[in-house]
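Dear Dr. L.,

I hope this message finds you well. Following up on our conversation about the binding site, I have prepared a predicted three-dimensional model of the protein together with 4'-deoxy-4'-aminopyridoxal-5'-phosphate. For your records, I am including the exact sequence and ligand specification that went into the calculation, followed by the structure tokens. Please feel free to forward this to your student if that is useful.
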Amino acid sequence: MSIDAIVRPEIATLKAYVTAEQVSATVRLNANEAPHSPWQPDTRDGLNRYPEIRPRRLQARLAQLFDADPARLLATRGSSEAIDALIRAFCRPYTDNIVVTPPTFSMYRVYADVQAAETINVPLRAGNDFALDTESMLEACTPETKLVFVCSPNNPTGALVSRDDILALVQGRAAQSLVVVDEAYLEFSGARSVADEIGRYDNLVVLRTLSKAWGLAGVRCGALLASPEVVAMLERVLAPYSFSTPATDCLLEALDSTRVPDARQLVKQIIAERGRLEQQLARLDCVRHIWHSDSNFLLVQFDDLAAVHRRVSKARILIREFAGDGALDHCARITVGDPDENDMLLAALANGAEEIG
Ligand code: PMP
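The resulting structure of the complex is given below.
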């Protein structure tokens, strides 16, 4: 694939911002930095200095974690930044479009709106456990479709998308669109990432995040995995110095190999709690349906979402409600919490039984 055929021409020819050279053991008078920091008076090379243009050590660590070649990985501030960068780099305003599959993560549409790119909706098959309709997706694509977003496991419906379905899209859109597989919740599925296909398919892009299974949503870090050509184009649109020094230090400490088992333990606990929560919810009279989940949340349909809202609000518990939302009518997405939180939710829902009457 020639990336020039799909990237915005302004980005293909963009003259990148030239940042100040950073060489250790030099007197640095080239970046208009302060000579020392009043906040860290005992160091001259701390917060007074700009961080690296791109956080190379962090990228190397993320490449190890996600089993990727560092040349095929871009560290981003959450996967949100990757979604934004993809749309800005590939979609010409008022001309190009993205394909999404509602109900799904709404930020794809939001960033497309910001870029004045059209969003083409190809709904999941509500009557078939919200399965992806790959044929309709391929039919809906136009010559201006630059990005096809697949969320796997999907937020808010919860299920993993099969590798075959993803590859059908990747092959069907070869040399025309990038297929972006958002694997924000992959760790809770036990499945292998489809990123191992990137060497074979240069129009495949995979997004990972540290915000879910790694318990680091507050630090803002994700990774985009793609061909080196796609990574190079996206590097052009990301801000230089986007990772702050404290964020990078915190991430490198948190991702130290001695701590990785804690993250794996957390995922195990959430998967176990997901099973328990599903079982207990299924016993409640107010619950009509629970979809299979490969994620850290459950999509639940209730008989009466307004009544559920009153009960959980009284217990000061927040769940994501989808009132009057077409295929998701009377549904709520419930994040799996720790055992105490899950018990509180179950108690709140059970307590209201007499109120429904
Ligand atoms: N993708 C999906 C499917 C999500 O649900 C979310 C957050 N809820 C994100 C991406 C963005 O996450 P972050 O920017 O924290 O990586």
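In brief: The chain has a mean pLDDT of 94.

With kind regards,
A. P.
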